[in-house]
Write a structure and sequence with these properties.
The chain is of the alpha/beta class and 334 residues long. It is built from 16 helices and five strands. Strands 2-3-4-1-5 form a five-stranded parallel β-sheet, with helices on both faces. The structure holds zinc ion (ZN).
Amino acid sequence: MKPLYPWQTESWQALQGLRARLPHALLLKGAQGIGKLDLALNFAQAMLCERPRADGIPCQECNSCHWFEQDSHPDFRLIQPEALSVEDGEEKPGGKKPSREISVDQIRDLSTFANLSAHCGGYRVVLIHPTEAMNNNAANSLLKTLEEPTDKLLFLLVTHKPQQLLPTILSRSLSFALHTPTRGAGAAWLAQQGVENPEHALAQTGFAPLQALDWAESGEGAEERGILLGAIRHPAKMDALALADSLQRSAPVFVIHCLQQWCHDLASAKLAGSVRYFPDQTAELVKLSNGISTAALMRFQKELQEARRAAFHPLNPKLFLESLLLAYRQLFAA
Ligand SMILES: [Zn+2]
């Protein structure tokens, strides 16, 4: 179990304050990559711990804590998409990719759990992560469970997209917002983790420290990112087809993410004269943004958003990228 992050102290205290009047479902919401899941896991373990510390932190020594650490606590269930439970890139028999959704079967399996009494006589905790990964049937099935709450059964719903949840699920949960840490707090933590240029890593990942750490550690896609950024800075000279060809081995979602950041900065340069993700290229971005129409840029940003939803399963990744890159170049053609 990861300990709490330094920026979570206040949230942790606030959660402890809720323990005397716990709802049936607690919705932990906030940006991606700020440690919501780790906070929720700590809280779940603390709920089950036999001798939590005075500040509510689990003792790490009791039987309950040992079971929790070994993923075998009988009063705890973690529900997440199969894709998060298996090793990266691992394929199921038959070459089927693990699902990115939480299925109705996963939620239905909970009903048995919900109807048993707690093994240890205290609370039972279900953590659903990320809650927006539930498909419609799963969400409706969860709703039924929430409509007939069981005593001493706590649902921790972790989400960075609460707007995608059923309003009826939202209305049956107590919302608990987790804030993105300040740049200073994020950078200080990243520096402790050995990240060489924390400010840069934060800016590349929307100021979410955990994502920034992943980004810095993996160096993943650095080369492709360089190629992409080198090309989109000169849309008039850009060869969209050749570019798609050289990028086709990187994950489409990664290319789209990078384009989204670039277009965010183009829009911001045009409308406000400032940028967020590529501060070292402000002048270039302002110059480029002068040549495009705001409406066309917004349409393209919307297209990127939709593409991102489809990006995990494009039928033909190269064609998929080509069409996005052509649309990008078209922005500057008028
Ligand atoms: Zn304990």
